[in-house]
Amino acid sequence: MTVQEAIEAILAAAAVQPIDGTVDTVKTGDAACPVTGVVTTFMATAAVIRRAAELGANLVITHEPTFYNHRDETEPLRDDPVYRAKQRLLDEHGIVVWRFHDYWHRTRPDGIRTGVLRQLGWTDGTELERRYIATIDPTPLGELARLVGERLGSARVLVAGPDDLLCRRVGMLLGSPPGHAHLGMLAREDVDAVVCGELNEWEAPEYVRDAGLLGRPKGLIVVGHAPSEEPGMAYLAEWLRSVLPDVAVTHVPAGDPFRRA
Length: 261
Prior knowledge:
The chain is an alpha/beta fold. Helices cover 38% and strands 18% of the residues. The strands form 2 sheets. It has a 6-stranded mixed beta sheet with strand order 5-6-8-9-10-7, with helices on both faces. The longest helix is centred in the C-terminal third of the chain and has 19 residues, at 225-243. The protein is elongated, with a radius of gyration of 19 Å.
């Protein structure tokens, strides 16, 4: 099986209609070569690439961009020493990087959200309405923020809203959705708190601050983009083992680029 054939098998299993202008394309490498192993990850960092080479894998499936912008446009980076060093690393090991973002989110159920819910332990006895709102056991916001951060491995959880706010219905806005998505979810009468990856600090956090002062308390838990989606790429590795039964598939976490000062 070639790398391209493996990609086609994955897309067929995802059963999603073609998406015009998708970012889910091969970013680097020769997709016509035989696949020797697959690594899934949130981000194809230099560390992930090195680990893939150690594992003998030549297909890295990343959820987010490899070259620091949404469409992996490399022309502006052509003389950048970091970009050039990363490209050399990929070339030296003959690694193909393919992005699986749009189609993985549109797989039903959403692959990222499925992995995150499993990591949070919100799959048994938990209702997920329209794939966005989880019904959980009543939990104070402060305790919920600690639990979410611990289970998703985030060392930098931010929380807005009263710690004693009892949360039963939690909106799941993972990754980096637009600001209006956060506001729309927080405005719902049946949502107590929102768990998200990243956002603009002058939008939803200020909405939550005003909501509390105006008698409509809400909660907001920000875990960081990488922790909010990495479990979905770990789940992808599990999902792929039935799609590519003769290929070694390993999840290599990218980790969070930030740490506490």
